[in-house]
Sequence to fold (156 residues):
Amino acid sequence: MRAGETKGDEKMQTKNKSDRVKEAATQIFVNLPVRDLKRSMEFFTKLGYKFNPQFTDATAACMIVSEDIYVMLLTLVKFKEFTPKEICDATKSTEVLVCLSFKSRDAVNDMIGKAVAAGGTTHAEPKDYGFMYQHGFQDLDGHIWELIYMDPSAMK
Fold:
C-alpha cells in the first residue's frame, strides 16, 4: 500500500500488477442545511440511501448517492460554519435543484412514491419530453430533488 492510500479505498486500484495507481475520479459533495438531522437521515434511509459512518456525527451525515456522489446533510449551526451568508429557507426560496438520473421511468416513479410515503411532497406533475421523463419531490426541509430518466433510444 502506498502513502495516502487506505485499505478500503475503492478508487485507488493498481494497474496490471504494477505499482502505478489509477487516478481517482472527481467526486461531488452537495452540502444541504437541515433543521432536524436525525429526522432527515430517517427520511433518506426510507428512500434506500445509506450513510458513511466515518463522516457522520451529531452535526453532519454523509449520504451516499453513488460511488462518486455524496450529500452532506448538515445541521444549521454546522452549515453556518462554511458560509458567511444567510442560509436560505428552502420552504420559501430555491437556491439549488438537485437532479439525479435513474435507469427507468419506473425507478423514478418508485423513488417518488418512497419520498411521499416518508413524508416528502411532490411540487409538480411529472413531465414527459419524449427523450426525458422528469418528476421530483421536496424533502422534509423543502429542498427540491428532480429525478430524471433519459431514454437513449429517443435521443437524436
Q: What stands out?
A: The chain has one domain: 28-80+87-154. The beta strands are 28-34, 50-52, 60-64, 69-75, 97-101, 127-128, 132-138, 144-150. Residues 51 and 63 are 4 Å apart (CA to CA).
